[in-house]
Write a structure and sequence with these properties.
- There is one protein chain.
- This protein is α/β, with parallel strands linked by helices.
- It folds into two domains: about 160 residues, Medium-chain alcohol dehydrogenases, catalytic domain (Quinone Oxidoreductase, Chain A, domain 1, Alpha-Beta Complex); about 120 residues, Rossmann fold.
- The protein contains ten helices and 16 strands.
- The chain is globular.
Length: about 325
């Protein structure tokens, strides 16, 4: 058994509730892998996980869903989900409690790291990319169609732009003007959100909008999607399950029984796309592991487009 540093939430709230503690990392049994973490991915879901209003019996809460690092130990008879695996191999994993310098995880969620990605990039790959894949798949987007993407400059949006381009799907994406070039970089046609959005989308896509993907959850996103897409089964959101249920469109995420299995199956394809250079992870900023509260503050505040990671130097 080894010891590690780990960030936990001692209360519900923001960066002020984070505490750096020492933990014992159990040796891996059959079907498990211990990872010497080099980067911890950060996602908006981390902040939602520690948001106020929850049962205090859950405290303290472990945080973080993605890591990248090196195999420190393999359980008896265990292989990585991608096959094989030896001590020292570079890996990426989806985990629970990923703000840690070492972690033991199920081998079914540990994969060989794409060599094309840094540790910080790899630690931010799987959650957003599988979410974007779920949105595109559920919408039924096919080659030659045009879709509307709300939040095109966000992390899920940028992955959706790249995956849509590989499918031959044209994307009109909402963004602030400051991020128009960023959206264009990944193949999207940017339109500014705000009053008059439906007319701007129609001007950008006179052929019509076949489906809408919502990563924002705003009233505008829902209203415009429903105004422009005839088939409500092709309006898909990851951010407003309540309205989706009320208005008869589709929510994908934890409460959708098809999302988990689809996203698990999609991971190997996502990793291959990244390895081939067809899917990149733009980074906004990296922080030292000791600076997790500052990183969490950046995560929950307006920041340049791209992902944020905690980096552990050895």
């Amino acid at each position: 058994m080894i010891t590690a540093r780990k960030w936990v939430a001692a209360d519900f709230g923001g960066p002020e509730v984070l505490r750096d503690i020492e933990v014992d990392v159990p040796d891996p049994g059959p079907g498990h892998v211990t990872i010497d973490v080099r980067a911890c991915g950060m996602n908006p879901a981390d902040a939602k996980h520690v948001a106020p209003g929850q049962d205090r019996k859950l405290l303290p809460l472990s945080i973080g869903y993605e890591v990248a690092g090196l195999v420190a130990a393999l359980g008896p008879g265990t292989e990585l989900a991608s096959g094989g695996g030896t001590v020292g191999d570079e890996v990426v994993a989806q985990v629970s409690g990923g703000y840690a310098t070492a972690i033991t995880a199920s081998a079914s969620s540990v994969f060989a790291k794409p060599s094309t990605l840094t540790f910080a990039e790899a630690a931010n790959l799987l959650l957003v990319a599988t979410t974007a894949a779920d949105l595109l798949h559920t919408s039924g987007a096919t080659e030659g169609e045009t879709v509307l993407l709300h939040g095109a400059a966000g992390a899920v949006g940028v992955s959706a732009l790249q995956q849509a381009r590989l499918l031959g799907v044209r994307v009109v994406g909402t963004a602030g003007q400051a991020n128009f070039d960023f959206v264009r970089r990944f193949g999207g046609i940017p339109v500014e959100y705000g009053p008059g959005l439906p007319d701007r989308v129609r001007a950008a896509a006179p052929e019509g909008i076949a489906a809408a993907l919502d990563t924002v959850g705003s009233q505008e996103a829902g209203d415009v999607s429903l105004a422009l897409v005839a088939d409500r089964k092709r309006v898909v959101t990851i951010a407003d399950g309540r309205r989706a249920k009320a208005d008869g469109y589709v929510f994908v995420g934890a409460s959708n029984p098809t999302s988990g299995p689809f996203r698990a199956r999609a991971r190997s394809r996502i990793l291959k796309l990244a390895q081939n250079g067809d899917l990149v992870v733009p980074m906004a900023e990296t922080f030292a592991f000791a600076d997790a509260p500052a990183a969490f503050a950046a995560l929950t505040s307006p920041h340049p487009p791209g992902k944020i990671a905690l980096v552990i130097e050895r």
